[in-house]
Amino acid sequence: MDNFEGTRAVVTGGASGIGLGLATALIEHGAAGVVLADIEADTARSAAADLSGTSGVQVVGVGCDVTDPDSVEALRSEADRLLGGVDVVCLNAGVFAGGHVWETTDDDWDWVLGVNLRGVVNGVRVFVPPMVSAPTPSQVLITASIAGVVAAPASGVYCTSKFAAVGLAESLHHDLALVGAEQVSVSVLCPGMVRTNIAKGDRNRPADLQDATVSDATALAAAGIEDTMGRGIGPVEGARNAIAQVCDGRFYVSTQPVELWERLVGNENDDRLAGRPPRFQMYE
User: Which residues have CB under 8 Å from 259's CB, separation 6+?
Assistant: First the structure.
């Protein structure tokens, strides 16, 4: 999709970070209305009021738990009521847990895969069928990560969830082509280092998925990702890069310049073709 003029958008994980940046960038590209959906409902409503006030565009914040199919269904109904339909959906909600793979707990796996993978699955199931049925252009943007293409140490559960999100986006692209839904475009966003609060995602972790103890490696991974993210690009600037790349017709889009994506993925592909073990690459 190369033109967002007059479109109606839903952004999950939209209260802050990349999600709020995507909403801002979409409005700058002409979106007529945006629903910010987030597990932090009050923060979403506050962010929406601020963005609406500065942009003059209808922006509404609502609560949504992307791991709950009923909550995502309710989000779709509310977006239809508020905007009259949805042309763009950014399935962006995400969380992080780190540590050595062998120390990762069942609670870690359930929480991270629940948000980062099942949250995307729920969004696709709810938002894509009406897009397939409609003749007008529409866009699905799935937020994965550069860690969904180039794996990092001490991040196994996170990397697994993001590799899965990339695969889901690729399969969705093929499925839409298979049924002739050429009006529905798909892109997968693979952010690099962006200044967000993803390392502090435990604040929204359900009580029944909280770990009683945290390993040294897990604590170190969280501290490391927070430090590295702090040196990253701003979320609005990153989102502007991503939306510009979507408008250029790219399937794989990044918050960083395309040249960084080409270097990281090029190195990864070289290793795979040569059968070498993966090298560790900083996402900067």
Answer: none
- Domains in the chain, please, with CATH? 8-257 (3.40.50.720)
Question: Residue 165 forms beta bridges with which residues?
Answer: none
- Summarised one tens digit per residue, pLDDT across range 214-223 is 666 566 666 6
Q: Enumerate residues 6+ apart whose C-beta is below 8 A from 169.
A: 140, 142, 144, 186, 187, 188, 251
Distance CA 58, CA 52 (A): 6
CA distances from 140 to 110, 122, 125, 211 (A): 25, 13, 12, 34
What are the pLDDT digits (tens) for 228-275?
A: 666 789 999 999 999 999 999 999 999 999 999 999 999 999 999 999
Catalytic residue IDs: 158
Instruction: Please give the backbone phi and psi of residue 139, each rounded to the nearest 5 degrees, phi first.
Output: -140, 130
Average pLDDT of the segment spanning 195-212: 83
**Structure tokens of 150?**
């180039």
Task: Determine the Cα–Cα distance for residues 44 and 36; give it in Å rounded to an integer.
Answer: 6
